[in-house]
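Allow me, if you will, to draw on your knowledge of protein folds for a short while. I have a record of one protein: its chain in single-letter code and its fold written as discrete structure tokens. I remain grateful for any guidance, and I place the record below:
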Amino acid sequence: MAKLETVFGLHSVQAILKSAPQRVNEILVLEGRQDQRLNKILGAAKTNDIRVRQARRKELDKLVKEENHQGVVAFCFPGEVHDERFLLSLIEKLDEAPFLLVLDGVTDPHNLGACLRTADAAGVHAVIAPKDNSASLTAVARKVACGAAEVLPYVPVTNLARTLKKLQELGVWVIGTAGESDGSVYQADLKGPLALVMGAEGSGMRRLTRECCDSLIHIPMAGEVSSLNVSVATGVCLYEALRQRAES
């Protein structure tokens, strides 16, 4: 039997009940808690014949260390594993220009979750990252993503440079972000088939990733700080792309 995954937080549990209820094996809720948000989860669990068990706060705190479980934890069967073949198939099936986010070296699960949340809100079709030296889709990342991790494909790939080259062969324009680049995000053409590459804070994109980019852009900085948190920078770039794509 496959090892169960832990999903916690109101948004995350509600999202998986909506998108993939067959994955949910059991839900634990805080003993004595009753409110409208929790009732939606209980109603969905009843509809899908999912067992719900009341648990003391100490049990929930033990399952979810150092994070806010919001009084609800779900044990879920693993979901579909996305890989490069899945990604290429997804792109070929799209009836609109691909809009992809690439995270190169983002290792903090909180940042990953925030990037997934923003990417889903901006209409991104998939998020791509290298398997090594990257945050994995942990329960913490899912919680921060507020449900986006349950609906937006997250695709870890073995060789990111190779994947980017295959995307280019399919007509996808690969644009990387680098503070020293000459072109501003507001001057760049972000319409059409696009893979936006965000590097890790501090070190930025790796050399091979940078070499695969068709062009580089930067976010103008008007104050004293030299860079933004990667999830904030991702939001700036994705929403500029969304603005341009909506107008095209």
Remarks:
- The mean pLDDT is 92.
